[in-house]
Specification:
The protein is mostly helical. The chain is built from 15 helices and 4 strands.
Length: 451
């Protein structure tokens, strides 16, 4: 009897709540109709629209990424695809549709697109790369010392093979080196390479942007699928592969009760490392006799933050001050950062893609670009895998981790960590990434200036 009374009381409160909500809704609609229409009942500022899109994309993206077909899933890359789709949908003419008209994006100059592409995407990139640096830090320098030549060679082979393919497409088509430099940076998901090509170009800047936007989606998804499918094709025993993973010896065991900690999560050392990384990444080095008026190189946000977080993660303390970041904090930073990075890149790409295709003059350039971009994504991975396995004799997980670094693919690293079930693969990624970063920047600049 007592349980029945509790159930009756529960339903009574639910009924009262529904009546109150309905009454508030009716009141708002009546007041709105007396004024300028039902739109007055909703306060849709640009900030509200932006955060609605952020969390809608995250929810739908993870829903898509969670779909598994024969053991293969998109994972966090699902966020990227959903972001592209919603970005494109927001360009459609919803100006006369209630509520939806607030989500209309006329171009990439809209405030919402700028914020998603700028602060949101960059914050995600910083969080992800910083977390990877701290995770790989304890073993990074031991691993680098042991396999330094190996990672340089593999990174160089990957970037060189992709660049040769880009040069070939430049020679056999009439779309120009600027377009194929954009395709190359998109196929290798390299924002620094994209920026370098734009800096070096004196014309056809929209072609670089178009090429990058066309090749980028397959550049993300292709590497994500590659690191999942290769172990399945090889029928690899992941437990044994984890044992073969070369991480440069045992990690030093540290007693952190010894050092002063500001808080248990590690936000202070994480933030301190980010500040140091941003300062390092801002240093600009001229590459020609023209000084700062000519081509220049900098580590940028990604390279600077990665290096400083590797250093902080390696040393673990500064005097009596602990630089430890908890495992839970790093995992959340890594996953959320990757999702936000893909969200910003995908949404801006979805908004700009149709406009840029129209300006470029049709579907033929898109078809060539997508095909060329897919080849530039696949060839370097296959060549890199064969070179790593048969020439450098790398174990599978070292090889895969190094390939994700050589492809400068942050999403693929996240997927590889999930597939391998160990964070140790991040060390191979972090060892190869810097050389690949430098080479893709130089390759993009040289393509534009020499061809």
């Amino acid at each position: 009897m007592e349980n029945e009374n509790k159930k009756s009381l529960k339903w009574l409160w639910i009924a009262i709540a529904l009546v109150v909500v309905a009454a508030i809704a009716v009141w708002c609609i009546v007041c709105a109709n007396k004024a300028h229409g039902t739109d007055d009942a909703f306060n849709f500022s640009s900030t509200f629209v932006m955060f609605t899109l952020v969390f809608a994309i995250l929810a739908l993206g993870y829903l898509l990424g969670g779909v598994t077909i024969k053991g293969v899933s998109l994972g966090t890359a699902g966020v990227f695809l959903v972001a592209i789709l919603l970005g494109w949908l927001c360009t459609l003419n919803f100006t006369n549709v209630p509520l939806l008209k607030y989500f209309h994006m006329s171009s990439t100059s809209d405030a919402v697109v700028k914020n998603l592409k700028g602060p949101i995407q960059n914050m995600g990139l910083i969080m992800f790369v910083g977390a990877v640096g701290f995770i790989a830090g304890p073993n990074f320098f031991k691993n680098l010392k042991k396999n330094f030549k190996t990672y340089i060679l593999l990174g160089a082979v990957i970037i060189l093979s992709g660049t040769l393919v880009a040069v070939l497409f430049t020679l056999i088509t009439d779309y120009g080196s600027e377009y194929w430099a954009g395709i190359l940076s998109g196929a290798l998901t390299s924002t620094p390479g994209f920026s370098a090509a734009q800096d070096a170009a004196t014309q056809n800047l929209t072609r670089i942007t178009l090429g990058h936007a066309i090749a980028y989606p397959f550049g993300v998804v292709g590497v994500v699928l590659f690191v999942q499918l290769m172990p399945k094709f090889l029928k690899a025993d992941m437990a044994k592969e984890r044992e073969f993973l070369k991480i440069g010896g045992e990690e030093e065991k540290r007693d952190y009760s010894k050092f002063f900690k500001c808080e248990n999560f590690g936000f202070m050392p994480f933030a301190l490392a980010i500040v140091a990384g941003l300062l390092l990444g801002s240093i600009t080095i001229p590459l020609t006799g023209k000084g700062y008026e000519g081509a220049c190189f900098s580590l940028g946000t990604t390279g600077g933050v990665l290096i400083m977080c590797l250093v902080f993660g390696h040393f673990g303390h500064f005097g009596k001050l602990s630089l430890e970041v908890s495992d839970g904090t790093l995992k959340v930073m890594r996953e959320l950062g990757l999702a936000l990075f893909l969200l910003g890149a995908g949404f801006e790409g979805g908004v700009s893609l149709v406009q840029e295709i129209r300006e470029a003059g049709g579907a033929a350039i898109v078809a060539w670009g997508f095909f060329g971009g897919a080849v530039m994504t696949l060839i370097p991975m296959v060549v890199g895998y064969v070179f790593g396995r048969y020439v450098l004799k790398l174990p599978l997980l070292n090889n895969m981790g190094s390939i994700t670094g050589g492809m400068t693919s942050t999403p693929a690293l996240g997927t590889l960590i999930s597939t391998a079930k160990t964070d140790d693969v991040a060390s191979a990624y972090a060892s190869t990434y810097p050389i690949a970063l430098v080479l893709i920047v130089l390759a993009s600049q040289l393509m534009v200036t020499l061809l």
